[in-house]
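Table S2 (continued). Query chain:
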Amino acid sequence: MEGCIECGGCDDTGKCVVEDDMQSVYPLIEEAEVIFLASPIFFYSVTAQVKAIIDRAQAMWAKKMLEKSPEERDIPKRGKGYLITVGATRGKSLFEGAQLTARYFFDALDMSYEGGIFFRRLEKKSAVKENPETLQEAFNLGIMAVKR
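Corresponding output:
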């Protein structure tokens, strides 16, 4: 999958014209009632791979703008989105960029952003194994999300 190339191909149809593996992801996103977006934090944002998917949601935003009136865009959303992130530092604003990005990504998908879980000071790949409470918190979020 590549990132959005801002070609404008989706502007009139709401469908991305870039032919790659993202074409098989769009139907999955459209069917989902709950989406968990997960990423480590790199420079106060999600990874480039996650951002590529987010940017490709431009087509879904275009579709929403084409198909819904301004009033319809304000009605309750079709699903819920959550963000799970880990970061190595303990900076106060560590997750703010990712949260803002997630909020607008889920809005483009016509989903509400429900928050998520954010883990600081986890740098090594094995850090989660050394902090079993983080796995339990993630598990609890999953249970809570599907019960709503």
